[in-house]
Write a structure and sequence with these properties.
By secondary structure, the protein is mainly alpha-helical. The protein contains four helices and no strands. The chain has a single domain (13-132), classed as Four Helix Bundle (Hemerythrin (Met), subunit A), CATH 1.20.120.50. Helix content is 76%, strand content 0%. The structure holds fe (ii) ion (2 copies).
């Protein structure tokens, strides 16, 4: 799998959210790069990714709460699901029980999750934000 490329269709046109999403994609890229001989960096990068995801989800959920966004409960659940997955993954990686092939597969899964989530769940709240602006 090649490194992650950001494409313009992933931008929501909401600068704070877009910056958060790009930061998460950037950390995923850093994680992939670390698998190429710098595995010692992998766990700290995953920790940064968890921190960035938590900060972003908090910001996004606060915004959706303010907008009385009807899909917020489901959206929040999706966020929680991702944090749990990365945590689980990080713990397995930290304990050294993760073969490299699995790491690549999981990085691919994370990339797909992030992009699908932005293009579907996140894009769906955009009109609500725009109405408020
Ligand atoms: Fe989201
Ligand atoms: Fe988001």
């Amino acid at each position: 799998m090649g490194y992650i490329n950001w494409t313009d269709n992933l931008d929501l046109g909401l600068p704070v959210m877009d910056a958060d999403h790009r930061r998460m994609a950037d950390l995923l890229n850093q994680f992939l790069q670390s698998l190429d001989g710098r595995e010692d960096r992998a766990v700290p990068i995953l920790e940064s990714l968890i921190g960035a995801a938590q900060a972003h989800f908090q910001r996004e959920e606060a915004l959706l709460d303010q907008l009385h966004y009807p899909e917020l409960p489901y959206h929040r659940l999706e966020h929680q699901r991702l944090i749990a997955q990365i945590n689980h993954f990080k713990n397995r990686f930290a304990s050294g029980e993760m073969p490299q092939g699995n790491s690549l597969a999981i990085a691919d899964w994370l990339r797909r999750w992030l992009f699908d989530h932005i293009l579907n769940e996140d894009r769906a709240y955009r009109p609500f934000v725009m109405r408020l602006a």
